[in-house]
Every structure is written in C-alpha cells, then in structure tokens.
Design brief:
The chain has 592 residues and is of the alpha+beta class. The chain has 3 domains: 229 residues, Up-down Bundle (Four Helix Bundle (Hemerythrin (Met), subunit A)), CATH 1.20.120; 137 residues, 3-layer Sandwich (Rieske Iron-sulfur Protein); 195 residues, no CATH class. Helices cover 36% and strands 24% of the residues. Strands 3, 4, 5, 9 and 12 form a 5-stranded antiparallel sheet that branches. The protein has a 5-stranded mixed barrel with strand order 14-15-16-18-17. The protein has a 5-stranded mixed β-barrel with strand order 20-21-22-24-23.
Length: 592
C-alpha cells in the first residue's frame, strides 16, 4: 500500500506470483498447441489461437473465483488470494485475444459493420440459443472482465467508493455464469467431444461447490471460541476463550467468532493481538492476511493497521476495532467488548515454553506455487486439447497464387469450367473476404477467360478465391462439352447449410453453431451455399444449394444457416459435383 498511486507495487510476493502466472500460461500454451497439432494437422492457426486462448481464459477465470474459498478452507492458499487481481488482469488479456481473433475471423471482411454483425449474428438473427446468443454472452463476459481489470487499481476504488467498486467486481459471478452459457451454446454444441460437457460441468461444480464448502465452514468454525465455557470474568471484564496459542503461526492471522462478530487473532513475536476481521478499506478479511513490517496487512488490497491501536499508518485516517487479549493455560482469551477507537489494546504474552512449541509458518510458498502451477497447466492443457473433435481434411493455399484458364458460367453461381480431356472440372469462384465473385467475372460470363487465384478444396470440391483485376477475356473458342447432367430426382436430404468458401478450407471446421454468423455473412456477400450432409459411414458430402430454377438462394436462407435443416428438392449430378435445387419454403428446420 502506498499513499501515492503507482501502476503496480512490485513487492517480492507479486513478482513470484506473476512469474507463476507467466509460467502457467506458457506451459499451457505449449502443451495445448503441441497436443492439438500432433493429432490435428489440419488445424488452422486462427482456430488454434481461438481454442487455446478461450480454454485458457476459462481455466484462469475458474481459478480467480476459486482463490477466495480455497484460502478460507486452508491458509496455504492465501498467496493465491492476495494477488488474484493480477490473475484477473491476465484472464482479461487472454479473453481479449480470444474475442478479438473470433471477431476478426467471423465478422470482418463482410458487408456488415463487424459490431453490427456481432449483434445480428452475421444477419442470422432468428433462432434463439443458436444464433447470436452465445456470441453476445461471450461479449458480455469480455466487457465485465475489461471493467474489472481497468478498475482493479486503488485509484478507482478511491474514486468510485467501496460500495460501487465492490458491486462492480461482484459482477464476476454473473459473468462466470454467462461464460458457461457461452461455452454450452457455442463450442460444446459441435466442436467438442461428448465428455467435454462433463469436464466443463465438473469445473463449474468445483467453483460453486468450493464456495458452498467455504461458507459452511465459516458458519460452523469456532462458534464462541469452540469451547464448552465460552466466557469468563477476568479482572472484572467479560472474556471468551477462543483458540490455543500454539495454533498461531508467527505473523499470521486466524479468524475466530466472538459472540456475533468475527475477529482476527495474530501472533506478533511474543504478543497475541486481536483486531476486527473487517478491513475498513473494502471490507476484506483481515484474519486471512498477515503482519508485514509490524502492521496487520489486508490480503485483498494491502491496507495496513497498527495491531495495538487499529490505526492506519499516516497519512491515512482509517481505523479498525481492537480487543484486549489474555493467555491462560495455553488458550487465547479475548475481551468481548472492543476498545475505544485508537486506544492501545492490552496484549497477551506467549511464554518461552509455549513459544518453542508454537507453529511457525514454513517459507517457500513461491516454489510450491510454481510447481503447482506447472502441474495444473499440463493437466488442464491435456484435458482441453483432447476434448476437441478432430477436424476434417481441408486446405487453403494461402499466399499461393495460381493462374487458370477456362469457361466462365454463372448458373447457379460463378464457376470456372476447365477442360480435362473428354471431361471437364468445375471450380466454384469467390472473391476476397466474405464476398462472391459475381462482380469480378461479370464481363466474361459465357466466355473463355484467364484469371489468378488461390485454391481452396475439400471433399472433392475445389474453389478459387479470385484475385481482383486478374480476370481477362481469352481467345474465343467453342464452349467445353463438360459432364452430362444426371437428374437423380426429387429427394429429401437432412444436413446443414454452410458457406462454401470457409467450409472448403479457409476456416476449419467452417461449420456448426460457432461458425454460423460467419457463414451467414458469407452468404450475404454472394459466396455460394452448400448443404453439408453426413453419410451413413460418417463421412460428409456437400451439395451446391440453389433455387428451383437455378437462381441464387443464399440471402433467403440466412435464418437457417448453421442449423439442422431438411431440404426437399431436385438433386442433379454433374461430373463430381452434386446440386440440389429447392425453394426456400422447402428448406425447413430439422431436429438436431
């Protein structure tokens, strides 16, 4: 604590704590990345960053909320509590990385403002609990974490006032509930294995369960000192017997119940002192703190008080209650009535024999914290990495520009027909970002042309992301014969509508509820829609989706993108490409 505001007061404890946080983050990131990439070589860098930062932020936010109850159950966890604001700031930074990466990946490069796209789910706003809901929950969590991190310094406590500041930081609990909703309605829907539900639920149960355990122990601990004779007259004053002196560690506090109040008892050298358990700064639990430089120091924010008078060191005007103590037969007796504010309390003295037997706190918590952090990081990273579903094989030759020549068609979506001997190959076309290629090829539809672009391919489909300005008319020649269209008749097919560009490899997996907003934004921009179908053997197949007369249908089905649908339409096979022609009214929501 200091009288002037400084960005960070770098005490030795804080340095140890922050090094432990850094080691935890580094080890988790390395283990998670290596485990993920060793089993999933098709993982894109963006998806890896989102999953790594998202799972790590969840683990660390759980740790922030566990610090308090753990410290109440066992004092060996107090170092976690005293510096948890640093853990909270680190959690916000990781959540920011996750949120910023997701915002860029799913909501930029389209025809909507990114924030508007976030609020509207990329334009797919209907369908509660599966549209923009999980994204909005995540955004709300990020806002709360930002407010808590930005106001964590005592400057804001002093200017906002303890009441408002405390209320603001209590938002951590509804934010954690919103985070669970964000995970449940998002990643757990399709991107995680079934047992990920159990691990997420177990983590949440540990957080809320430890709060219950700590509250129950607090209610039952040391009622009236925990003895059969709670009070006695000593020198004409009413005293209560509390705990044995040998239970007091040097410089450490213990919380005991004194009637209806809780007080904090400390051993300060040979003296046993007692003060109120409530810090006047922000109602922190002084009994969970320690004596630093002769002052009782609050574990929350470092406020200090003279154990004899209860006064804060100058120039602070704060003052807490003090109580007289006596030692008899190895027990600590505390006068039930507090002293006058600022008056010097009478302290009991520990004898030499008692002092020799007294418990002294062992040092080296920094090493234990570091070791525990490394073990926890490895375990959490392995569980999080292994709980992901395996990604399919899909490729995007980012940065590799190829040249091609073929016949350009626009029915039902811009495509390049490239002769291959007696047959031909069909390449869907798209523009940069979340846009179609209609404008890029508008002048050469029905003609031969040359173009440059980057290949995207998956499940037998290949798409070309066309370089703007590279499309040029080629020497006229007869149209390619192409493959003969085979009408497979009217069929009812169940699947999921996805954006062709992302699904085929620009993003992986490029499907599911998590990707819904991005797919809707792509379809708004003219990217061809595909109907993703899971076959009986577990493999997937994609059909190009168009209207009954071959017209584009993407903008008319935005509310059904990324959700299970049942499509009744005419299926046509042309070469290796399947088409399904259906009216929007024949595309209905299906049960998951």
């Amino acid at each position: 604590m200091s009288h002037t505001y400084r960005a960070v007061a770098w005490s030795p404890d804080k340095k140890k704590y922050d090094l432990a946080i850094a080691a935890f983050v580094l080890v988790y990131a390395v283990v998670f990345a290596l485990t993920t990439l060793s089993g999933q070589p098709n993982m894109t860098a963006e998806t890896l960053v989102m999953r790594l930062s998202g799972t790590l932020a969840f683990v660390m936010m759980s740790g922030v909320l566990l610090a308090g109850p753990l410290a109440r159950v066992s004092p060996r966890f107090l170092p976690l509590l005293r510096n948890r604001r640093h853990l909270g700031v680190a959690t916000f930074l990781l959540a920011l990385v996750h949120g910023a990466t997701a915002l860029f990946q799913f909501h930029f490069l389209g025809d909507l403002n990114p924030l508007a796209s976030l609020l509207q789910g990329g334009g797919a706003t209907t369908g509660a609990l599966g549209g923009a809901t999980f994204q909005l929950l995540g955004a709300a969590v990020l806002v709360v974490l930002f407010l808590m991190a930005a106001t964590s310094h005592d400057f804001w406590l002093a200017n906002l006032g303890p009441g408002l500041w405390k209320a603001l930081h209590m938002l951590a609990y509804p934010a954690y509930a919103a985070l669970l909703g964000h995970i449940a309605f998002g990643a757990l829907q399709q991107e995680a294995r079934d047992y990920a539900w159990a691990t997420t639920a177990a983590t949440a149960a540990a957080v809320f369960g430890m709060h219950f355990v700590a509250g129950w122990r607090e209610r039952t601990r040391s009622k009236d000192g925990g003895t059969d004779e709670p009070s006695q007259q000593l020198d004409g004053e009413d005293y209560s017997r509390t705990i044995r002196a040998e239970e007091l560690a040097e410089g450490r506090g213990r919380v005991v119940r004194l009637g209806e109040r809780r007080v904090a008892v400390f051993r300060n050298g040979r003296s046993v002192v007692c003060v109120s358990n409530t810090c006047s700064h922000q109602m922190g639990p002084l009994g969970e703190g320690k004596i630093v430089d002769g002052y009782v120091t609050c574990p929350w924010h470092g406020f200090q008080f003279d154990p004899a008078t209860g006064r804060a060191p100058p120039p602070y005007p704060d003052c807490i209650e003090t109580y007289d103590t006596r030692l008899r037969d190895g027990w600590v007796w505390i006068r039930r009535a507090p002293n006058a504010p600022g008056a010097t309390a009478r302290s009991g003295r520990i004898g030499e024999a008692a002092g020799d037997a007294a418990t002294v706190e062992r040092h080296g918590w920094g090493r234990r914290l570091a070791a525990g952090s490394l073990v926890a990081a490895v375990a959490a990273a392995l569980v999080a990495a292994e709980s992901q579903r395996r990604l399919p094989k899909a490729s995007f030759e980012f940065g590799a520009v190829r040249s091609a020549m073929g016949f350009v068609v626009a029915d039902p979506y811009p495509s390049l027909i490239v002769p291959r001997g007696p047959t031909s190959s069909r390449y869907l076309l798209a523009g940069p970002g979340k846009r179609g290629a209609d404008r890029l090829v508008a002048g050469v539809v029905g003609e031969w042309a040359t173009l440059e672009g980057t290949l995207v391919f998956r499940d037998g489909h290949t798409m070309v992301e066309v370089v703007p300005g590279s499309v040029e008319p080629a020497r006229p020649r007869p149209p390619p014969t192409g493959a003969v269209a085979e009408n497979l008749g009217r069929q009812v097919v169940e699947g999921e509508i996805v954006g062709a560009k992302c699904y085929m490899g620009v993003m992986n997996p490029g499907a599911g509820v998590v990707h819904r907003a991005c797919a809707a934004l792509c379809l708004r921009g003219g990217v061809p829609p595909l109907l993703r179908v899971t076959l009986a053997n577990g493999r997937t197949q994609a059909l190009v989706l168009a209207g009954p007369k071959g017209e584009p249908v993407g903008k008319r089905v935005l509310d059904r993108v990324g959700l299970p649908v049942r499509v009744a339409g005419r299926v046509v096979r042309q070469g290796s490409t399947l088409f399904i022609y259906a009216a929007p009214n024949d595309i209905q929501r299906a049960r998951p």
